[in-house]
Amino acid sequence: MFNSEKLAELVTHYCLNVSEGSKIGIQGNPVATPLIQQLYKHVLLMDGQPELRVDMDGWDELLYAHAKPHQLRYASPFLLYFAQNIDGFVQIRSETNVKRLTNVPDEKRRERQEGLKEIMEAYDRLVTPGKLSIIPYPTLSYAQEAEMSLFEYEEFVEKACFLDKKDPVEEWRNISKMQEPIVQRLNKVETVRFVGDDTDLKVNVKSRTWINCDGHINMPDGEVFTGPIENSANGQIRFTYPGLYMGKEIEDIFLTFKDGQVTNAKAEKGQNFLDQLLKIEGTDRIGEVAVGINNGITRFTKNMLFDEKMAYCMHLALGRSIPLSGGQNKSTIHWDLLKDMRSGEIYADGELVYEKGRFVI
After folding, report:
1. Same domain, 141 and 192
2. pLDDT by residue (tens digit) across 138-187?
3. What DSSP letter does each residue of 309-350 carry, written as one string?
4. Same domain assignment for residues 211 and 298
5. Residue 311 falls inside a structural domain
6. 187 falls within a domain
7. Tell me: the pLDDT tens digits for 65-84?
8. Is residue 48 part of a domain?
9. What is the pTM of this model?
10. d(CA 302, CA 232)
C-alpha cells in the first residue's frame, strides 16, 4: 500500500515552508483522500492552517459539454481569491482517467485556457522553493498509462520520491549538493546550444538564473532549468517522445524557431491540436529549457512530473516562464516537451558540457 503519511511528512518538513498560521492550500481528487488527510494532519501538526480545494470527477467534462463560450472564458473570483490568499500550495496529481478530455474540441480547450489567465498569474507568485509542491498520488489511470500494475506503479512512485529510503529528506539534500556545481557553471554562461537528432537549437540565457530543482517545487525532482531570453531561440528541434496535454498526444513534434518564435511546427499525429495550442498567447515562445538528472527515473510513463526528470533527457516548455528563473514569457499554459539526449550534446558558450546523457562539468 502506498505510504501517504511518509510523503505528507516529506512535503511538510522539506518541500514546503509550513510555519505557525501559514495558510496551506491542498488540491486533489477524492481518489487521493488518504494523502489529503495526511497532509491536512501534518500541516496542523506544523501549526499551519490547511485550506482544501477538492476536484470532483466529471466537473470539467460537464463544463466542456454544456458551457457557452463566455462560460468557458469565465474566471471564478472564488478560485482567484484562493490563489491570492494562500501562503503555500500542494497540488496533488491524482487523475482517475487521463483520457477524459480527449474528445473535447480544440477550440473549447483554447477558450478555457485563455479564461484562466488571471488565476494562473496569481499562482505564479507561489512558484518558488518552499511555497509550491506538486506531488503524485498513484492511481489506476496513471499505472495503466505507464503499462504497470497499480502495485508496481506505487513502488515506482515511492522509489522516485525516495520514500523507500530511511531518510528521504537526506536523500534530497544529497541531490541538491550534486546538482549545485552544474547550476553554478551554467549561471556563468551566455548561450546554450542543444545538438542531437534533427536538432540544433541555440538560446541566450545571459542574466537568467539556472535553478537547482531538489524537491522544493516538484516531488519527485532532479533537474536544472532556466528561462531563456524570449527572442533568442534560433534553430530547430525534434522531440523524441509524444507531447502530452489534457489527455491528448501529439506525436513526432518538430519545431523551427527564429528570433524566439515558432515559425514552423509539424507533427506526425495531432497537427490540428498543435496548431490550436500555438494560437494561445505566448505559446509560440520558449518559457523554459531544462535538463533531467534523476537516475532513479529510467522509463517513460506518460506523466511529465516524472518523465521530465529522466537523467538522459532535456526538455523545453512552450508558454509560461517560471518567474524564479527570470523568464518573462506570459501564457496560460506551460507545456513541457521531452527529448532523449543519449546521442546528443549540449554546449555552453561553445564548450561541451553534456554528452551521452550526462553532464561532463
Report:
1. no
2. 999 999 999 999 999 999 999 999 999 999 999 999 999 999 999 999 99
3. TBTTEEEEEEE---GGGT-----S-EEEEEEE-TT-EEEETT
4. yes
5. yes
6. yes
7. 999 999 999 999 999 999 99
8. yes
9. 0.91
10. 30
Smallest CA-to-CA distance from 290 within 338, 243, 357, 246 is with 338
Query: 210 lies in which domain range?
Result: 174-359
Shared domain check, 142 and 206: no
Q: Which grid cell is 281?
A: 498567447
- Count other C-beta atoms under 10 Å from residue 188's C-beta: 10
Within 13 Å of residue 153, how many CA atoms lie on the same side as its CB? Answer: 21
Q: Is 124 in the same domain as 223?
A: no
Quick check: is 54 in a domain?
Answer: yes
Q: What average pLDDT is seen over the chain?
A: 96
Number of domains in the chain: 2
Question: Which residues lie below 8 Å from residue 174, measured CB to CB, with a gap of 6+?
Answer: none
Calculate the alpha carbon distances from 49 to 11, 18, 21, 215, 344 in Å.
Answer: 15, 9, 6, 22, 47
